[in-house]
Request: fold
Amino acid sequence: MTFRNCLPPYEGRYSRGPYFYEKWGRFRIDLLSPKGRGYCKAITYARYLLSVSLGRELLEGLEVDHVDGDRTNDFIDNLQELSREDNSKKRLMDPRHLSSFHLVEFVCPHCKTSFIRRRGQSHLTKGGKATYCSRPCSRHFREYPNVVQEYKEIPSPEVKEARHCENWIAWSKERVP
Reply:
């Protein structure tokens, strides 16, 4: 395996890579301590490139965002530094993810509170008999052995409205009577 001296801000370390890491679905690079002893840190190749171009390591809590949304496109013009919160907002507003964002309105079998969940986070796709509003309520599942929970799918236009809302959790709370 080939080791190279790193560029600033990682000078004094050796690097191995970049190589495609299937678990992450992107390219990564390994940073090793001087003379290859001991400490090894794996980071995405995009993070390494942006750090080298800025001349400093990215601070904790900052992420590398791919402007075009393609995580394998590591050209420097396609990379920008964003906070985790801003990066999450950007992903939520991305129209390519609308199809995976189906909201369902439930009534908790225990406390009878109306609440909204994503379909993928409910008993409809995960199995089980009911979806509860909270953990304390879910502890009472034995009290309702034959429960048939009613639910209402939220139509697509409302989902799009929720997507473009600054905070979809706040939007979902506004909808609950």
About this structure: Strands lie at 4-5, 14-21, 26-32, 40-44, 62-66, 79-83, 103-107, 114-118, 151-153. The domain at 4-91 is CATH 3.90.75.20 (Homing Intron 3 (I-Ppo) Encoded Endonuclease; Chain A).
